[in-house]
Amino acid sequence: MGAPAEPFQVVGYYTQPYNEIVHPDRVWRVPKYFLRRWGPYLSPSRFWAIVAARQFAYWNDKCRWFTVYDKRFAQEAQLSTIHFRRLKSEINEPNQAISLFLSKKELAENEKYHVVNGQTKPKPTTYTVRLDDPLTPPDGLHLASWLQANSQ
């Protein structure tokens, strides 16, 4: 029997001035299942919109909802505002993969705007985001088949 193992500690450090621009310590957590299994089903813009939405929820004290203006959401997802607004129209459509992850609160026409400093402006949109990952369609079929085969 050998000597007891000594504690092992690793301390990372940064050496390059470009880190002031790159900020390598700013990271997003993305579940492996979402990355590997949902990646092929989502376009890059839809994928990053979901990642950005989860980031907003995390900043909102890890709640499943957040409120944000289109421009800010588009910036976080690295999309143009015009492209994001096209994507936004898919969010509550049941046949769209993005709607499995995101939904937006629909407001009555008279609730969509408010007055700020004497100017009428649109209100930000309130979204809910699924923080766990639904099974992809093939994985759902595989699980159903497995459960049926193993339920006896």
Strand tally, please? Answer: 5
* Strand coverage percent: 5-15%
CA(first)-CA(last) distance: 48 Å
Largest sheet, strands/sense/barrel: 3 strands, antiparallel
Major sheet strand order: 1-5-2
Q: Helical segment tally?
A: 6
Model regions low in confidence, pLDDT < 50 over at least 5 residues: none
Structural class label: alpha+beta
Mean pLDDT: 88
Order of helices and strands: HHHEHHEEEEH
Shape: flat
- Whole-number radius of gyration? 21 Å
Helix percentage: 25-40%
List the helices and strands and how they pair.
Blueprint: H1 19-22, H2 32-38, H3 44-59, E1 65-68, H4 70-76, H5 81-88, E2 102-104, E3 113-116, E4 119-122, E5 125-129, H6 137-149
Antiparallel strand pairs: 1-5, 2-5, 3-4
Helix pairs in contact: 4-5
Write a concise keyword list for the protein shown above:
two-stranded antiparallel sheet, three-stranded antiparallel sheet, 13% strand, alpha+beta, 152 residues
Overview of this structure, please?
- By secondary structure, the chain is α+β, with helices and mostly antiparallel strands.
- The protein is 36% helix and 13% strand.
- The chain has helices spanning 19-22, 32-38, 44-59, 70-76, 81-88, 137-149, and strands at residues 65-68, 102-104, 113-116, 119-122, 125-129.
- A three-stranded antiparallel β-sheet has the order 1-5-2. A two-stranded antiparallel sheet has the order 3-4.
- A hairpin with a 2-residue loop joins strand 3 and strand 4 (119-122).
- The protein is flat and about 75 Å long.
